[in-house]
Amino acid sequence: MDLIEIIGIAVGLAMDACAVSLAAGASGRSPGKRAAFRLSFHFGLFQFFMPVIGWYGGSLMAGPMQAVDHWIAFALLAFIGGRMIWSGFRAGDPSPTDPSRGTTLLMLSVATSIDALAVGFSLALLQVEIWQPSAIIGLVTAALSLAGLRLGALLGARFGKRMELAGGVLLVFIGARILVEHLVNGT
């Protein structure tokens, strides 16, 4: 897996966190630099650790699953992307609390990074080392979350669902590309 694909996966995974950040910025419930740091840091940190956890789980089963790893990677990425696309079409209910504090921050961090767990599992099945992709995923998520907060404050929350849709489409596309590459190359 090359750097462009890893960045593509990172951007796709970061869309949930970016969309949440955009909505938080547009809501005005988490103003200031501290709130921006808390949200972007935690989203990036969770997006860094979840693929690592998924990778370790997936690497334990990589040997016997090599014959079907590309199907599993496609299914997981298509499922994650499909969920993101589905979520992008649903109307969300805004939280009345500051999303950059306490339990709300923890729940948002986990919720926006759960998909990264499955991606880490997929990377293990594809026998991709995890540290570089995981660091890129975490950094891209932190950066896009910060940008989402800033843009949300300027442009409003109406673009949040579109970003989630784009992230879902990107993950489905990458999953399909992995599947086609393995079927064509016979690896």
- Gyration radius from CA atoms, angstroms: 16 Å
Spatial shape: elongated
What would you call the structural class? mainly alpha
Number of domains: 1
Total of helices: 6
| Unreliable runs | none
What's the N-to-C terminus distance? 13 Å
Helix content estimate: over 70%
Mean pLDDT metric: 80
Number of strands: 0
Question: What is the percentage of strand-forming residues?
Answer: under 5%
Major β-sheet profile: none
* Topology order in helix (H) and strand (E) letters: HHHHHH
Overall description:
With 187 residues, the chain is mainly alpha-helical. It has one domain. The chain is 79% helix and 0% strand. It is built from 6 helices and no strands. The two termini are 13 Å apart.
Overview in brief:
It contains 6 helices and no strands. It is an all-alpha fold.
How would you describe this structure in keywords?
single chain, 187 residues, mainly alpha, 6 helices, 79% helix, 0% strand, elongated
Give the topology.
Elements: H1 3-27, H2 33-59, H3 69-89, H4 102-125, H5 131-155, H6 160-185
